[in-house]
Amino acid sequence: MAEGNEEIQAELERLRAENASLKATKTREMRLQVSQKGAVSLYGIRRFPITFYADEWNTVLGMADEIRTFISQHGDELKRK
Hints:
By secondary structure, the protein is α+β, with helices and mostly antiparallel strands. It has three helices and three strands, in the order αβββαα. It has one domain. Helices cover 53% and strands 14% of the residues. It is elongated, with a radius of gyration of 21 Å. 0% of the residues are buried. The mean pLDDT is 91.
C-alpha cells in the first residue's frame, strides 16, 4: 500500500509542477482556429473560445461601427476588465 501512495504522491507532484509551468507561460495571445464543426473559434479573450460560423462572423464584423458607437454611448453603464 505504501508503494501505491508513493506513486500517487509522485504523480501529484508532477502534476503540480506541470500546472505551475503552464501558469507561468500562460499568455493571452489571441488566435483563430477552425472548430470540429467547421466554425471559427477565437481563443484568448475569455476562458472558453468565442465561436461563430463564418457568416455569423461576417455579420458581427459588418456591425463594427455600430458596436463602437453603442459602446461609446453607453460607456458609463458598461463594466471593463
